[in-house]
Amino acid sequence: MGEKDKEFKQGRREFFSDAGQRALGIAGAVFLGLTATMQSIGKEISVSDEKSNLLPKFAGRVVRISDPTFKVSGNALNSTIIEKKLNEALKQLTRKNSEQTAWGEFVSKKDVVGIKLNCLAGRGLSPHPELVSAIVNCLKTVGVKDDNIILFDRTDRDLTSAGFEINRGSGVKCFGNNQDFESEPTQMGSVGSCLSLIFSKMCSVIINVGVLKDHDLSGVSVCMKNLFGLIHNPNKYHFYTCNPYLADLVSYDMVRKKVRLNICDSIIAQYHGGPSRKTQFQWQLGEILVSSDIVAIDSIGAQIIEEKRKEKGMRSLKDDGREPIWLKTSEDKSAGIADLKKVEVINL
Amino acid sequence: MGISNFICPYAEKLGKLLIPESFCEEAPSATKVKNDPSDQFIASARHWEKLEELRVRCVLCPKECRVADQERGYCGVRENHKGEYKTLVYSRPCSIAVDPIEKKPLFHFLPNSLALSIATAGCNMECKFCQNWEISQFRPEQIKSTYFTPENVAEAAVNSGSKVIAYTYTEPVIFYEYMFDSAICGNKKNIASVMISNGYIKEKPLRELCRVLSGIKIDLKAFTEKFYKEMCSGELKPVLRTLEILKEENMWFEIVVLIVPTLNDSVQENKEMCQWIVKTLGPDVPVHFSRFHPIYKVKNLPPTPVKTIETIRKIAIDEGCHFVYVGNVSPSEGEKTFCPNCKQTLISRIGLYIERNIIQNGQCPKCKTKIPGIWTESDLPKKQV
User: What is the pTM of this model?
Assistant: First the structure.
């Protein structure tokens, strides 16, 4: 520190409208055993009501998609099959009869949709382009325009390493945060970071597409860890197994509001050696997880990894000193449901 | 564009950034990037250890980050590549400028000389009041930088008329390799090197650094672990150890304390700090108390009152510190250098500029008391080339 290298300039203050909390649907509230009451003037809101209003839509519900074609190694995946399965998953998740209304719970045709990928590990442990293509098709089917879909990650290089082609022109876009961050940091609990402009300014909805792998410091990287790509300084938030940093990030208003759907590419999963790719610890799980509850999907993901580690005779994440305690912290902040006893799993 | 073309014309504009727009790194659009331009900045890191399963442990600073393959340390500029730890900022400055040495601030080191000042992105702390957070708290790929080798650094210092190369603005510890090699290049051309640092570095790399540097300024953030933890994500104890090592190594160093209202401005704390300095380091270490201004994540506090700075300066003098200065306060008696014996005014300064300097042969001209410092180039110790 010490001296300034340039004159101090007053940064722009970005004021974001606080869209407030997202109401919990009646059906979801009953499922959780909470009493969702209508708010009336002067009525005292109980703590449980307050917390339930913060929970995501369809909290605690995770859909596990599988298909025989997902497990055939060496063959390209079939994007059409994935698209069909995703549509079915959305219907099951939302309990809607049509794809239009199911997807309509998360996006409208006016939305600009960012698809946040996790390409750190490169090809072989990044979201499959066929899956991403299927997601894009689903969005277009419900009316989202090509030009309003942005695939993004931290850098252009990360994206190209995973097999995605950079495009800043017309059509579905694909590019990294690179140097484009807000000019002032946003304080999100213990996390103080400049947000990616793709997230904060360009997109109204984020679909969070992670992969299923363990992580050397946080324990697992499923969907929550992928959101570290929305901030400029994730390297500052890896101590203490990323707790409470991950929980604080996903609890931030704008993140709650915009990150509407989480999809974990678990066609190939990895139970050890992450976050980078270690083929000797990978296996063909052959699944795709879908949930609007980022905590629940991560909880299920952590369970899958723990079961595999046990099967392989490896220490649990807890015994390895990297228990993902941020899951419980996130639940305490009403970002979602971590308790597996309360998570509803739908197998497709 | 040759180095001299863009350095020399700007040399007269002290303190201005010199990175030309044409040097900024931007990923090409709509193309596949095979060989990323940032690859040219990757070099082997020093001071790290191999661990099991391709992990590494960095032993450059007390954070001792354990880093898995493809991950980075806390500083954001060192990365594990399949079990080999790399620096991502070798020859990758984001700031190059020519400043007066007094701006560092170094008041007893070649006064009135120019310092070719250089920084890369990154830091191993996160001070919530960091003046240079827009470069210290960002990753190298997130900000503009240029390719500027250690040889370029030394040459630029010569061409700009600088007697000193200063590694500064962000935290030079984290660009250790670049700083170290640049210092050697500078030493070959009789250009001294100084480091402006938070002092958060482990002993071994610090002692090695002392072979190539001629002066160091340490930011002593506060005198409590609480402040270091809550406001800087750092620790006090290793920084105090750094100061002790600098004394053992006979390195010329000065201390700066940024006084933040309500957080580290208590009389008691600063009294204890000065007592420690005098007892452990000696009364001749120059100490600068600087005014805070709201910035970054601390915008809810007011600027430090001038009276607070003056009070703390008086405490330091009463506790036995011989050379106590004030920063970001001008004009002030605290900008002057006085003889600790006869109180003669030896150097008068206004801001960064020296009005008058009557030190002769490193002594007070009146009572002949030796005044500690590096006053001329002949005072510079021999350093590794």
Answer: 0.89
